[in-house]
Design goal:
The chain has about 375 residues and is of the alpha+beta class. Helix content is about 50%, strand content about 10%. The chain has 14 helices and eleven strands. The strands form four sheets. It has a four-stranded mixed β-sheet with strand order 1-7-4-2. Helix 7 (about 145-165) packs across helix 9. The radius of gyration is 20 Å and the shape is globular. Bound molecules: protoporphyrin IX containing FE. Protoporphyrin IX containing FE binds near residues 54, 68 and 213.
Length: about 375
């Protein structure tokens, strides 16, 4: 999956001519890392639309990135941890009825929507519209039709505006959405397009990433009973994070990101021109046999250093602490109430650019 890939608010880079050259996809780990950590040669302004902070470069990126990072510190997330645990436990209790459950949608998407809504202070009535929107977003991405993806993004913007308007008169302390609307830490109040873009990044892309990550993790736990049994014993948060990220390395749900070359450069043995688009293939980088040996082996400790599931460089995922918290709480809730997680039918793979599974039918076997 790409992040925030169909924005509504245009920026000054509209005139950038990036279509004249063929797009280059980089797959080798070393090359992906090289491009991601060299923002001077490989700009993130790869879209015609405003993307805060992911479409920004240099000092402007750093300014907005600092604003965003403040929402994901340990201190900032601490008050959300108990709520996140309750959301995870309640959802697992709902699906632990001995019936067949579809893990990507019934567990992953529902959990993603409920957890993100709880974090942002959004009302429960938004669950249905957000799930419907996520279904349409996945369908639009699968179709590869830019008109459809733009239409789906527009609907999301309208939803966001309906959340922002009633909060304008608040004192900025009610919830995270409130704080963001009144946030002036970038030197001035955020403009509407910037608020919508940040919220879209925190939900639009991430509901999908979390849902797909849950599918990958649940499938792994169902097919690797030894690992599930090990994680049922007391393991620290750090150990659980490393295990879950190794599962995501093996089957990365976040497919790719885009850059634009700012000057002539060489990648592998290919030379590329200024203005040429470059796709960073995180999935391939995470399976590079030169770094992970063997690439399909499960070695959480050994492989952690090279794992790029949350990216690398100045645009590395700022939401990682939140994603880790959400995934940890859900997995703890699933493992503590079950003695086994069984596959209950054929799983179906997603199609690129979506990663992981489209559906994973399972049955939770109670303790
Ligand atoms: C399993 C879940 C997630 C995965 C696999 C993931 C993966 C990634 C990756 C690979 C990037 C780097 C993109 C690039 O270099 O162009 C990224 C960036 C980003 N992620 Fe995540 N992410 C996840 C969850 C989240 C969550 C929960 C949030 C926020 C609520 C979030 C917010 C962002 C933002 C704002 C960026 C752009 C950062 C920048 O450009 O400076 N992500 N994510």
């Amino acid at each position: 999956m790409e992040r925030d890939d169909e924005m509504q608010t245009t920026t000054s880079d509209d005139s950038r001519d990036t279509e004249a050259h063929e797009t280059i996809t980089v797959r080798a780990h070393a090359e992906v890392v090289r491009v991601a950590t060299d923002p001077g040669r490989f700009s993130s302004a790869a879209s015609r639309f405003l993307q805060v902070p992911n479409g920004l470069d240099g000092a402007e990126h750093a300014r907005f990135r600092a604003l965003v990072d403040r929402y994901f510190t340990q201190e900032a997330l601490a008050p959300f941890a108990p709520r996140c645990r309750s959301v995870a436990k309640a959802l697992v209790a709902e699906v632990s009825q001995g019936r067949v459950v579809e893990a990507v949608w019934e567990i992953g998407a529902s959990y993603a929507v409920r957890a993100q809504s709880a974090w942002l202070g959004w009302p429960g009535e938004l669950e249905r519209p957000l799930l419907d929107w996520l279904t349409d977003r996945f369908e639009a991405i699968r179709s590869g039709d830019p008109v459809r993806t733009a239409e789906v993004a527009q609907r999301f913007d309208a939803l966001m505006v309906s959340l922002i308007e009633p909060r304008r008169e608040s004192d900025g302390s009610r919830d995270i959405t409130d704080q963001l609307i009144h946030d002036a830490s970038a030197g001035r109040p955020l403009r509407d397009g910037e608020i919508v873009s940040i919220l879209r990044n925190w939900t639009g892309g991430d509901l999908g990433s979390i849902a797909l990550a849950v599918g990958v993790i649940v499938h792994f736990l169902a097919t690797h009973e030894g690992v599930a049994t090990h994680l049922r014993q007391h393991v620290t948060d750090e150990t659980l994070d490393v295990y879950l990220e190794e599962m995501l390395r093996l089957d990365d749900p976040f497919h790719a990101s885009r850059r634009v070359a700012t000057c002539e450069a060489h990648l592998d043995d290919r030379s590329i021109q200024a203005g040429q688009r470059v796709v960073l293939d995180w999935r391939s980088a995470n399976r590079d046999p030169n770094v992970f040996s063997p690439p399909d082996g499960f070695s959480p400790g050994v492989n952690a250093a090279g794992n790029v599931v949350y990216g690398i460089g100045p645009h590395v995922c700022p939401g990682r602490p939140l994603a880790r918290l959400e995934l940890r709480e859900l997995v703890r809730a699933l493992l503590s109430t079950t003695s086994r997680i069984d596959l209950a039918g054929e799983s179906a793979r997603e199609q690129p650019p979506l990663g992981g599974f489209r559906s994973v039918p399972i049955q939770l076997v109670a303790r």
